[in-house]
Amino acid sequence: MDVIGHLYQGFAVALEPANLFWCFVGVFLGTIIGVLPGLGPAATIAMLLPLTFQMNTTSAIIMLAGIYYGSKYGGSTTSILLNVPGESASVVTCFDGYQMAKQGRAGPALGIAAIASFVAGTVGVVALMLVAPPVARLALSFSSPEYFALMCLGLAMVVLLAGASLLKALLAMLVGLWIAGMGTDLFTSTSRFTFGHAELLDGIDFVVVAIGVFALGEVLANMEMRGGARMLPVPKGLRNLLPTWQDLKDCRFAFLNGSVIGFLIGVLPGAGSTIASFISYGVEKAVSKRPEKFGTGVPEGVAAPEGANNSETGGALVPMLTLGIPGSGTTAILLAALILWGLKPGPLMIQDNPSLFWGLVASMYIGNVMLLVLNLPLIPLFAQILRLPAYALYPVIFGISLVGVYSVSGSLFDVWMLAAFGLLGYAMRRLDYPAAPLILGLVLGDAMERALRQSLMMSQGELSILVARPVSATMLFLAVLLLATPLFKKANALRVKAIEQAD
Amino acid sequence: MKIRNFPILLALAVMAGIPLAAWAQGFKPAKPIEFVVHTGPGGGADVLARFIANAMEKEKVLPVRMQVNNKTGGGGATAMAYLAEKQGETHTIAAYTGIWFTNPIMRAEAKHTMKDLTPVVRLVLEPAVIVVKNDSPHKSLRDFIEAAKQNPGQMKQSAGSIGARDWVVRQLLMKNTGANWAYISFPGGGERIAALLGGHVNMMVIEPQEAGEHIRAGNMRVIAQISDRRLAAFPDVPTLKEAGFDVPTVPQVRGIVAPPGIPREVVTYWEDVFAKLTQTPTWKKYLEDNLFEDGFMRSAELNKFIDVFSDTTRGILKDGGIKVVR
Fold first, then answer.
1. Chain mean position to CA A416
2. B18 has pLDDT over 50
3. Do B120 and B156 lie in a common domain?
4. Of A99, A186, A387, A422, which shows the fewest CB atoms inside 10 Å?
5. Which of B226, B243, B269 is the last residue of a domain?
6. A138 touches chain B (CB under 8 A)
7. Is A339 in Cβ contact with B42 (below 8 Å)?
8. Pairing relationship of beta strands B252-258 and B92-97 according to DSSP bridges
């Protein structure tokens, strides 16, 4: 088959010692910046870009792509250990990952994250290699109404993320939507909720809210328990630091689900890895035999989002490499890099530079193996951080959070915002409001509003455009179904009760 | 030059027997240059700044390093405010672009205008082309305009935000022809192209470099170019004027500004450095690769350009029904 021949050539390129070296440099740097909250792959690649001018183009793209997918591996580490999301795509990993760490299962959680990343990362590359052109064409048929329906489906996940009270979850989600609406309105260029501050013209950075609500909120809530603040248990012995067979068996479907959903959403230029991780978590919970356990530390709750955000990388490279259309901030920079190196990214690039494309694909297989080998031995090391007593651990989390937020924008204003969201997170914990729906609203709000308004501009105000198209109609129907599940459950509970009383 | 270095330099100058007047004329940077941009890493201004920093080093035009500092936020307002605060600082410069003009006109929160800063040079003009999908029935811009006239509001353009260059082009064309079509904003360039190629919109304004490969692959067709003369890459496509639309050409401008209140000789120094840079092969190749035009202009000329450009922009925004705050 043609693919095998190409891939063989690709491996010949990727296995050249220089390319192997740069692949390792890339995935190693990626892991580090993934672990550090704040600094993301986009910023790192942009800063390293001038250094690549002296390099061979294939080596350079292999290294930069390594940074990109490598960062997704590292992102889970601080989410699991400290409840500090390392990247925006790792917020969902906090839900169950941090709970697992609290139960002394930090090692297995990190192990599951690494394995899920490896499996889904590899599936993403296979898909990139086999189905890129047709999938890219399919992605083009997606337009604003479909994006709106997709965001609705995502938002309907709130019923799955809600804790004891659906009302509280909806309120938290509304606050998230409100925060998403801050800044400049794209369509009219008017300011919303900026209160005269130029710093708010671009809205509030997602990282600031996520780190504030999750990490600082958690620290503040724990500090309150004076004396009672126990250290997290970290069992000794290597066996306790790795996932068990049972864990892996529980994650079987999550690996598949994360891989497929991550790739498909990655291909869409208007979505992104954060949305992919939310949706795959929601799907995992929806089909699970034990949905009530989600959020209390189940391994599949880590595997699904971690898989999705890794496979998303393969997906996001599809429109970039086959069409020259960047789907995310990071791929936009990779595209800029290709242009600066004198290549012409576009529909003909693979045809014109087969060795670059196939070399990159082959290097991604190698890079994923390197990442697994690199990350698994680090787990016992990272897990040790939880042995720190509370009076040392909490300041560390505070420090990491502050530096992480400051490194995104270099603005003290954001640090103050972080403090405010830390207090909000604390208040929400005290009053028993779940944080996840707030983040969900924040992630989806902006894209959802935009897609709705674009759709209505396209249809000149006719709402029917949303249901007249089959794909968007299907997704909207699923969203309604999802929203209605609590009602069904309630009705069912009443029926059971009625039958019992009749007996 | 920082005040605390002054006595030492003064002493050195006296020791070396250099006449003080001559010293005052010859500014030379003594530490790395802070290069402020308003986009995050990877944004248009950021990529240009990092390219300049690299080219300066490669072509040995500047004796010190340049360090890019991303002051993002507020659609450029944060970077402009930061620069305005650096009053008199000689080791800081910034890369401006069109949004530095439009943002303060539209936004009350953006308190600093280009007039508050010291103009240094204008560097590039980025032309644009108007494209349609390859299977579009519109063979020329006239075809599109006629279709828009017959179906008011039904034709669609995928584009950026209000006040961006593609918006300005639309406003000018609509005013000139009386046609009317929808302007659908997408935040990312990739989404705009995807909307056009997916057949969800009819037309877009795009940078020629960005469109180049889609045209070569036969996915897009250029129907007009927004440039004073035809670009070498598109010898057969008419400019707006040639196509019969008498509207001003709106290039995307990029250049360098410095903080307010810096000495004249520092401005001269930077003018000379950038004049030298634009003569190097690295720079010429960069313009060629990206299909940019050389828009070099020195400080005095740029100062006049700022006035004219701001007034034109304000007028277009007002005509477009946008609230103008200053």
1. 25
2. no
3. no
4. A387
5. B226
6. no
7. no
8. antiparallel
Total number of domains constituting chain B? 2
Is residue B72 less than 8 Å (CB to CB) from chain A? yes
Contact residues for A167 (Cβ-Cβ < 8 A; gap 6+): none
pLDDT of residue A235: 65
The residue-averaged pLDDT of B136-162 equals 93
Calpha distance B146→B177 (Å, rounded): 9
- Any idea what DSSP says for residue A214? I
**A349 close contact with B: CB closer than 8 A:** yes
Give the tokens for residue A134.
């047709």
**Whether residue B212 sits in one domain with residue B280:** no
User: B230: which residues sit within 8 A by CB, 6+ positions away?
Assistant: B237, B238, B239, B242
Asked if B212 lies within 8 A of A45 by C-beta distance, the reply is no
Chain A window 28-87: which residues touch B at a Cβ cutoff of 8 Å? 42-47, 49-50, 53
Any A CB within 8 A of B137 CB: no
Residue of A nearest to B184 (CA): A454
Please report whether residue B175 resides in a domain.
yes
Lowest mean pLDDT among A186-200, B155-169, B263-277: A186-200
Residues B270 and B202 in one domain: no
- Whether residue B163 lies inside any domain: the answer is yes
CA distance B156 to B215: 20
In total, how many domains does chain A have? 1
By Cβ distance, the residue of B46, B73, B194 closest to A269 is B194
Q: Is the complex ipTM higher than 0.85?
A: no
| Tens of pLDDT, residue by residue, chain A (503 residues) | 588 888 999 999 999 999 999 999 999 999 988 888 777 888 888 888 878 888 889 999 999 999 999 998 888 888 898 888 877 788 899 999 999 988 888 889 999 999 999 999 999 999 999 988 888 888 888 889 999 999 999 898 888 887 778 899 999 999 999 999 998 888 877 888 988 888 888 888 888 998 999 889 988 988 877 655 555 666 666 667 788 889 888 899 999 999 999 999 999 887 888 889 999 998 998 888 888 888 888 999 999 999 999 999 999 999 888 888 887 778 888 888 888 787 888 888 888 888 899 999 999 999 999 999 988 888 888 888 878 887 888 888 888 889 888 887 778 899 999 999 999 999 999 999 988 899 989 988 988 999 999 999 998 888 999 999 999 999 999 999 988 887 777 777 788 888 877 76
Quote the domain boundaries for residue A342: 2-502
**Which of B71, B77, B182 lies closest to A201 in CB terms?**
B77
Is residue B12 included in any domain, yes or no?
Answer: no
- Does residue B134 share a domain with residue B95? no
Give CA–CA dist A47/A41, Å, rounded.
10
Q: Does A450 touch chain B (CB under 8 A)?
A: yes
State the Cα–Cα distance between residues A142 and A135, nearest whole angstrom.
Answer: 11
Least Cα separation, residue B193 to chain A (angstroms): 7
Whether residue B120 is found in the same domain as residue B256 = yes
The whole-angstrom separation of Cα B287 and Cα B126 is: 9
Q: Which of residues 253-312 of B touch A (CB under 8 A)?
A: 289-290
> Same domain for B115 and B264?
yes
Do residue B132 and residue B222 come from a single domain?
yes
For residue B190, the distance in angstroms to the closest alpha carbon of chain A comes to 5
Distance of CA B195 to the CA centre of its chain: 25
Which pLDDT belongs to residue A225?
72
| Interface touch A199/B188, C-beta < 8 Å | no
List CB contacts of A404: < 8 A, sequence separation 6 or more: A36, A37, A38, A39, A84, A207, A211
Q: Is any Cβ of chain A less than 8 angstroms from the Cβ of B185?
A: yes
Q: Does residue B320 sit at the A interface (CB-CB below 8 Å)?
A: no
Nearest to A282, CA basis, from A491, A481, A68: A481
Residues B133 and B119 in one domain: no
What radius of gyration do chain B's Cα atoms show? 22
Looking up residue B188, the CATH number of its domain turns out to be 3.40.190.10
Domain assignment present for B236: no
Question: Do residue A347 and residue B50 have CB atoms under 8 angstroms apart?
Answer: no
Would the CB atoms of A202 and B106 count as touching at under 8 Å? no
